[in-house]
Amino acid sequence: MKLYYSPGACSLSPHIVARELGIAVELKKVNTKDKTFEGGGDYWKVNARGYVPALELDNGQVLTEGPAIVQYLADQKPDAGLAPKNGTIERYRLQEWLNFLTSEVHKQFSPLFKPNTPDDYKPIAKQNIATRFDWLDKQLEGKDYLMGKQFTVADAYLFVLLNWTRPTQIDLSKWPNLAAYQKRVGARPKVKEALQAEGLLPKEPAKAA
Questions:
Q1: CA-to-CA distance for 198 and 12, rounded, in angstroms?
Q2: What's the pLDDT score for residue 209?
Q3: SS3 sequence, 14-67?
Q4: Which fold does the domain 2-80 belong to in CATH?
Q5: Domain residue limits, the chain
């Protein structure tokens, strides 16, 4: 499988999930400005919407949209527990989280990254994010992850979104549960691997024998 990604973008979420599951994916770095990808190629031909992520399956089919991709990956190794089993109420709770993250958190960040967003709108976008963070902080009280003790694909997604607070100058310390959660997820070995592979975290020096 090939994962088309841009460093630190929402494509980091399926990248983390693939590593957590031990699924080998070939990484294809996309230049989101000119819509080309590593090795030479027109990304428009991979995903006609032009954005990442896209997952090219071994049979040539291309799956897009992060929440769909991470559930597909999790279902390749259901016993790993990154997504509850289909048909259970827990699976619908996971989908509830993924839908909330994609529509109510991810999309609130979008104006902050667009160069044509009027400056006077940016404080409104940040307030919209703060409102969602207020609610999320309460949901994480006393919990390790969104669904309790078990890390799921929704946690990979939220972690990526929380990382966007740095380039957008949002002080995450206002939400202590979210800040602690970001550190907890960021400390996971496979999360570190994904960050290092995308050039977002320095690689740790090899330990002396």
A1: 8
A2: 56
A3: HHHHHHHHCCCCEEEEEECCCCEECCCCEHHHCCCCCCCCEEECCCCCEEECHH
A4: Glutaredoxin (3.40.30)
A5: 2-80, 89-188
What is the phi/psi pair of residue 39, to 5°?
Answer: 90, -5
CA dihedral 156, 162, 168, 171 (to 10 degrees): -170
Those residues whose C-beta lies under 8 Å from the C-beta of residue 36, and which sit 6 or more positions away, are 30, 42, 43
Looking at residue 3, the DSSP 8-state letter turns out to be E
CB of 17 closer than 8 Å to CB of 70? yes
- Digit-coded pLDDT (tens) for 3-45: 999 999 999 999 999 999 999 999 999 999 999 999 889 999 9
> DSSP of 123-181, one letter per residue?
HHHHHHHHHHHHHHHHHTTT-SBTTBSS--HHHHHHHHHHHTTTTTT--GGGSHHHHHH
Phi and psi (nearest 5°) for 41?
A: 165, 155
Query: Which residues fall within 8 angstroms of residue 128, CB to CB, at 6 or more apart?
Result: 108
Q: Global pTM?
A: 0.96
Does CATH number 1.20.1050.10 belong to domain 89-188?
yes
CB 62 within 8 A of CB 28: no
At residue 203 the predicted structure's pLDDT band, cuts being 50, 70 and 90, is confident
- For range 154-171, the mean pLDDT: 98
